[in-house]
Design a protein that fits this description.
Structural class: mainly alpha
Radius of gyration: 12 Å
Oligomer: single chain
Shape: globular
Largest sheet: none
Strand content: under 5%
Number of strands: 0
């Protein structure tokens, strides 16, 4: 299973709002399984995807731990790239 995701300024802002967290604790989001479907839903939405949160949860239900781990890894890489001055930002 592969869910296309993009984390730009608006996506990160919506994710922080939806999960009631801050930039200082954004890295903690992926440690809670309850947040994985929210991460995937918002990331997919900003990548132009049309999956609903329920569809993503169904995909995760049918998947395995590797599926959840892939979402968490992609999220971490994209958020790091967005905020890192040494890597190409998706906002460009």
């Amino acid at each position: 299973m592969n869910i296309e995701m993009k984390f730009s300024f608006k996506a990160i802002k919506e994710l922080l709002n939806e999960t009631n967290t801050t930039l200082e604790t954004i890295g903690e989001l992926s440690k809670d399984l309850n947040n994985i479907s929210t991460i995937a839903y918002i990331g997919n939405k900003y990548a132009g995807g049309k999956l609903t949160k329920e569809e993503i949860e169904d995909m995760l239900e049918k998947g395995n731990f590797e599926t959840a781990l892939a979402i968490v890894n992609e999220f971490g890489q994209q958020v790091s790239a967005y905020f890192s001055p040494n890597e190409k930002s998706q906002a460009q």
